[in-house]
Specification:
Number of helices: 13
Structural class: mainly alpha
Shape: globular
Order of helices and strands: HHHHHHHHHHHHH
Oligomer: single chain
Distance between the termini: 21 Å
DNA sequence: TACCAGGTCCTCG
DNA sequence: CGAGGACATGGT
């Protein structure tokens, strides 16, 4: 039986440092030959390089250093609920072009208009409301605990912990669908969000950087190898400690 | 064509 | 509590 601590080692050796949260770098100097240029062209076939450099999200690989960057993480955490990150990037791009990566502006903008701008991220009626609820809370509160964040409409445990960990550097391990799937297949008995979170927080070095990287590694592993329907057990870095390694082929 | 994607809220047993 | 449905777009 694997331990959560040993799994981290396998994943890190296989995928390396992830540098999460994938902060966009909007408004920051970037390389003209950025590897995200093709993604930008795909989403904006008639777009130009100048617009790409100024506005297209890319992965900075650093912790947030400003209130704007923290708010961008809050926005991303809401928008990525049950939604692929590539769709979220399109919405963040449009929000940025409209100067809306800003709690005060989100509070003021018409909710219908906001919904239209974030349409590619899906669930736009719900998410536009969620963004406004977050803008209200985080512009009003500069010091808060997890319980208060969980009271925001639209913020459940995963979103709350993502915000606390990645935007504010507080030590909460983030549990997502990938975490539940990977642990379940590996043979762990914990099922609920709280039980899984406790499992990690009791067995892994309790540092913010460890929590950030471990969660990011799990997402990478879930996307590239431990797929929902046909996991690639043949090239799985934790196969030797996974109870389900022989259940798929 | 279906299924999947870094969930959450609401309702009902 | 836990299960089941609604919410919506884009990629494969």
């Amino acid at each position: 039986m694997a331990s959560v601590k040993s799994i981290y080692g396998y994943l890190y050796d296989s995928y390396g440092t992830q540098g999460w949260w994938p902060l966009s770098g909007l408004g920051m100097p970037v390389n003209k030959d950025d590897k995200d240029w093709p993604n930008y062209l795909k989403a904006n076939p008639k777009g130009n390089k100048d617009d790409f450099i100024k506005n297209w999200p890319r992965h900075l690989g650093i912790a947030p250093k400003s209130w704007k960057q923290r708010f961008e993480i809050i926005v991303g955490a809401i928008l990525t609920q049950n939604t692929s990150w590539s769709n979220v990037e399109k919405a963040i791009y449009t929000l940025n072009k409209n100067k809306l990566i800003d709690a005060e502006k989100i509070k003021k903008v018409d909710q219908k208009k906001l919904g239209g701008l974030i349409m590619p991220a899906g669930y736009f009626n719900q998410k536009s409301r969620k963004l406004k609820e977050c803008a209200e809370f985080f512009s009003k509160n500069k010091d808060f605990d997890r319980e208060e964040v969980l009271k925001i409409w639209g913020v459940g445990p995963e979103t709350a912990d993502s915000i606390l960990l990645y935007a504010f550097g507080k030590p909460y391990f983030v549990v997502d669908a990938y975490t539940k799937r990977i642990l379940g297949r590996a043979g762990f008995k914990e099922k609920s969000y709280d039980d899984i979170q406790r499992l990690f927080m009791a067995n892994v070095d309790d540092s913010v950087d460890m929590y950030k990287e471990y969660h990011a590694l799990i997402v990478e592993h879930g996307k590239s190898v431990c797929l929902k329907s046909r996991p690639r057990c043949g090239s799985c870095p934790i196969a030797e400690v996974c109870k389900s390694r022989d259940s798929f082929k």
